[in-house]
Amino acid sequence: MVLNKILFLLIGGVLGYGNLTECVDEIKKVILNAPGAFSASPNSYAKMFSYSGKSINQLGRFEDCYSLEKARYMLIELSKSPPLLLSICGPDVCSKSNYYEIINSIINTTVTEESTQLSKFFGLKSSNANQANISYSIIFPESYIHSRFHELNGGAIAMVLITVIIGTISIIGTIIDINIKHEEENIRLDVEQTGIGKDDYLSVPQGESTIINILICFSIIRNMKKLMSVHLDDYHPHLYFFDGIRVITIAWVILGTIGGLYLYDLPLANYMKLEQISKKYYTLPVYTSLLALDVLFWIGGVLYTYFLLNSYSASPKHWLLIYLKHYLEMVPMFIFITFFFWTLSRYMGAGPYWYTGNDAYSDCKDYWYANLFFLSNFIPNGTWSKCLSHGWFLSVEMQFFFFTPILIWIYKKSPGCGWFFIAGLAGLGTILGGVVAHHFDLNVSIYGPHHWAFYNYYNNKPYIRMPPYVLGIATGFIYFTSATNNDDKISSLIIKLMKNTIYRFANLFLGISLWLIIINVQFQVYKHPGDDFSYNEWSLGKTSAYFAFLRILLGISYMMMFTPMVLGYFSGITSVLSSSIWTPFSRLTFSVYLIQAPLADIFMRSLQYPKYFSKTSLFCDWFSMMVICYFFAFIFAVFIDIPVKTFILWIFGKKTTKENYYEIND
Fold first, then answer.
1. Fewer CB within 10 Å: C terminus or N terminus of the chain?
2. Per the confidence metrics, is the pTM higher than 0.85?
3. 417 contact partners, CB below 8 Å, separation of at least 6
4. What pLDDT, on the 0 to 100 scale, is given for residue 146?
5. How many Å apart are CA 89 and CA 358, to the nearest integer?
6. With 0-12 CB in 10 A as exposed, 13-18 as middle and 19+ as buried, what is 211?
7. CA–CA separation, 424 and 416 (whole Å)
8. Under 8 Å CB-to-CB from 20, ≥6 apart: which residues?
9. Regarding beta strands 137-139 and 132-133, do their DSSP bridges make them parallel or antiparallel, or are they unpaired?
């Protein structure tokens, strides 16, 4: 055991001179009293030994050590990603500099069999027989946490006050809503007025007082009813199966978040078996979870296109209002979550590993505005802001939405030109995907070499993620044509082909097969991690080709699978995915996505003992996090997301029929 090796050198007299005398004497007492750890009433020194970790990533007993008189818990951090830690419950007279001197003396002492093995265990690269170079840090977690995470700073106090104000407004709005009786007809906007249908979701108050209407938007009871309401209209019933797909997709995203923490960010008790674990097939959904978001991009392309075509107007004012409405619907929740977790998450966790608890918000001080303007995937310096880092998805989504009305305008003028631009953009995304992968020598594995280049220059960029989105736009063209008999020859041909049973089933089969191939092919790299997890199974040319065609093939697979369902076919599948049980969970997708990574960071980094990576522990943590995320998403949705969207609809819903635009977030 590593601790025994260190103690062997100490008690053997390697150290024990100068200003280290008191520290070393106390450590020797811990060693000499070690057998007493097994007695019925161990003394303080025996408890120190007992509360120390006995091997790499064994975190000992942090809280017990901290509460022990004359003891202090200490970590030796040998690696950050993946974490390699040694924990020692040592005498409180030993300072950080004492430990540095002790460890450096052990490393650089005359080579013995013991010290050689210790150096190898630490992963030292020796330059000669007697000298070794090692990078490590000494950390006193409790001191670090107390100095940074215990007293509320100005930002945290401000966030608490804002939260209290929002809660107070919600309570006032609820009381007013209970006491003011509205006829059902007065709290719904008719389908002819808004285009969203006679649905309780996002229905708006229509009293005579503006202040009362605004407060009622925050009514807790009303917003809970809106969230739980089912679809009552039949305005676009074929699209309701997206509810089920959204929920399944967000579950996949959360699995990837949990698995990523296991593989890269949490101390593992069985880290020595990480290579074997990485080859297991059950880890594939973790590796491929970044592909889950392409499903949401494709769905977004369909919905934006169909509803914007239905609300088309040549008026520039109409399009400016659409841009403004969509921005105002998205930004309040995004910014609130950013500031909420940036300022408060540091106070929500505890434990020996919690000193890493606020690393996820390291960029917020300098680049919080990137989230405000949906540019976090380009700031700073064309890379990627780590301030609520998964927010890049919303930035890409907003950037897609920015150019969508332009495509709609082109399509309205000439459907053939619209399809031409769709093909061109999909092809451009394919080319750029291959070029970027080749230029940065990307690896298929997100844990392999140059993984930061993968995130900074490939994964988070709209021109890389474009193919699935624009192919979703193509499906939107098809659905619009089926509903309106639009003069679109390409869409009409596809609609005609879909009427053929053999063609429909072949389309579904080929779409599913293509998707499964894309998802599984990368496992050929993951199951051969190579030396030091270099994942060098594929050549650069093969890897670049994979990244070039990945997104366009995903978009084609989704188009083949789901276009028949959008047109009303495969009712057996769509009826399951359209079930009302999915609806409230689907409405929480936006909130769940925003909070899942911060919550996972808080709960997973607050561990008292190391994680043990297995499919059982992965499943249990994933399922627990699903429950936790939806619970808190419900709160954020009722108090923030739904009130804001209701308020925006209340403002923008007072337009003429010609200037209407459709609600796309339900």
1. N
2. yes
3. 410, 411
4. 67
5. 24
6. exposed
7. 12
8. 98, 101, 102
9. unpaired
